[in-house]
Fold this protein.
Amino acid sequence: MPAFQRISCLVATVVLILMLGATGPQAAGFQSCIESLKAQAINAGVAPRIAQAALSNVAYDEKVIRFSRSQPEYKTPIWDYMAFLVDEKRISDGRKMLRKHGRTLKAVERAYGVDRHVVLAVWGVESDYGQETGDFFVPHSLANLACAGRRAKYFRSELFEALKIASRGDVALKDLNGSWAGAFGQTQFMPSTYRRLAVDFDGDKHADLVRSEADALASTANYLRSAGWRKGEAWGFEVRVPKGYQGPSGRKRTASLSSWGKRGVTALNGKRVGGGTKAALLLPAGRNGPAFLVFRNFNAIYSYNVAVSYALAISHLSDRLKGGGEFQTPWPTNDPGLSRAQRLQLQKLLLRAGYDIGEPDGKVGPATRAGIKQAEARFGMPQTGRPGTKIYRALGGR
Ligand code: CA
């Protein structure tokens, strides 16, 4: 090794040691914050043994803090979002669940008045029907956010709620696994939502949204009912707008169906819409894409995860679970999105082509995006990093 490299190596080592030294007081501050959380939790009503077990070995979690600070640098087009949330597998898995949990779903629908296909669709999107509930131990994530993140007060109170759930014995402490932000279980409720809306539906006196499908499905229905769900009403339906439509749209611009009819909005069969029911016109990809008139129940779904794309995915998946078909108007793109199976296949194709994107898991993160960009460059395509059909085909996918 040349002398200057040895020196720079030594300098780097010294710098590293200095940096590590500098985190000393911070680390001590973090640990004393955790200790004080433990005492506060017990004061707030958490069982001491739960506080002790949950908060005794909390390590600083760089990943949680990074996730809490990162702005999404990449805006997912709605057709990508819909392609992986409402793909063939989620539809066929959902239809299986409709049979497997048919009796429970019907009982939930009777008890809460919420369409069982919508309840099932929420379950399918939130946790892939209970299969994917998150890899973070929620008490540790929330303690990190309370001691080193933004909105510390909010996350501290969520932490105490989470520990109270375990104190009550509704969910075992070790089962509190979820997202980095603290949503957990088959319905991905935040702990405070859990306190307000989780219900016991299988009759064991505990609302266990981790291990009981019945409790999870009923709690989802309870959530939607409390968000204003109206029994027997639809979420909305796909419509057509006149070519070159310049009129109003958006979730908050409600008007009667007949006033939408006067603006030229028709059902898919070409018949003008009419009647006094209030509805909003959604054009989620602009006036050249699919159009929808949505009712109050759409807003109930929207409140679950405030995004139009989310509410539309749940709504559409619920229709598909009932046997309905795809949207009639295609998304305005010549490069449609990929299903989850295709995303996984795309990763394998990238690896095979020599791009080091890590272990294929079907989840498109920074490494996969970087690999897509490199592959796009090789094919002379614009470098978007987006998992679309064009790059998929170019790499040999079908
Ligand atoms: Ca229960």
Observations:
- Residues 3-43 form the longest helix (41 residues).
